[in-house]
Amino acid sequence: MAKERIGILGGAFDPIHQGHIQLALSVVDAIRLDQMLIMPGGNPAYKSCLTLPEDRWKMTVAACAQDGRLIPSRLEMDHKGAVYTIDTLLALKKAHPRAELYYVMGADALMKLRNWRRAEEVYPLCIFLVCSRSDLVDSKSLKEEKKILKNLGARIRLIDVEPVPVSSTRIREALSLGLPTPELNPAVQEFCACKGLYGAPGQLERADLWLDRLFQTLNPHRFAHTLSVSWLAGRLAEKHGLSVVRARQAGLLHDCAKCYPLKEMQRIARENHLTEDPAFLSSGALLHSLVGAWVAEHLYGMEDREVLDAIAFHNTGHAGMSRLAMCVCLSDSIEPLREDYPLLSEIRQLSEVSLEKALLLSLESTADHVESRGKYLHPRTRDTIAWLKSLPECT
Question: Domains in the chain, please, with CATH?
Answer without folding.
Answer: 5-159 (3.40.50.620), 204-394 (1.10.3210.10)
